[in-house]
Amino acid sequence: MSIVVKNEEKIAKLLKTAESINAQSPEVQEHALNDAVKRGDEESAAVIARAIRDRLLKESDAELAVDRMGLEVPSGNTFGAWLDFFKGLGEMLNGKWAQYRQKLRDLPQQEGFPLNTEFPEKPDGK
After folding, report:
1. pLDDT-based confidence at 109, cuts 50/70/90?
2. Is 40 left (phi over 0), alpha (psi -120 to 50) or beta?
3. Model confidence pLDDT, tens digit, residues 78-103
4. Is 104:71 a contact under the CB 8 Å cutoff?
5. Mean pLDDT of 33-44
6. Which of 44, 43, 56, 28 is nearest to 118 (CA)?
7. Which residue has the higher pLDDT, 21 or 61?
8. H-type helices in the chain, by residue range?
9. Which of the pair, 61 or 4, is modelled with greater confidence?
10. 74 and 102 Cβ atoms separated by less than 8 Å
11. What's the mean pLDDT in 51-64?
12. Nearest to residue 49, comparing CAs of 122, 110, 99, 102?
């Protein structure tokens, strides 16, 4: 029974840490991650790395918003009129930003996570 209580307390503490880290600036998050890594604290490092990943995903949401993709919705109703639109949409949904976001989502499966985490580089342009 005491093991269950200790695990629940540990989980509550980690969740509180995650909430606190999510509210911090990117610099504070990176400092907290580096500090956890230096201490060899895998649990805290994992919580902080996920918080950073979540922030980066949230920041990149706008890059894949349909209204920001620069695609013009065709006025015609023929296949030809829509073909370029769908090609452009497909390129955006499989482009640099989509690949970047997938790498962020895959971060916890990265070898060395969380003590040797390599965040993907944010793409430039579309």
Report:
1. very high
2. left
3. 888 788 888 888 877 788 988 999 99
4. no
5. 94
6. 56
7. 61
8. 2-22, 26-39, 42-60, 79-93, 96-105
9. 61
10. no
11. 89
12. 110
Q: How far is CA 20 from CA 23, 52, 53, 90, in A?
A: 5, 12, 15, 38
Distances (CA, A) of 4 to 8, 10, 98: 6, 10, 40
- Other Cβ atoms within 10 Å of 20 Cβ, number: 14
Q: Which of 23, 44, 51 is nearest to 107 (CA)?
A: 51
Query: Please, which residues have CB within 8 angstroms of residue 21's CB and are 6 or more apart in sequence?
Result: 28, 29, 32, 47, 48, 51, 52
**Residue found by looking up tokens 């639109």 in the block:** 85
Q: Which two tokens mark 9?
A: 């307390």
Name the nearest CA neighbour of 14 among 41, 52, 53, 54: 41
The pLDDT of residue 42:
94
Tokens in use for 126? 């579309």
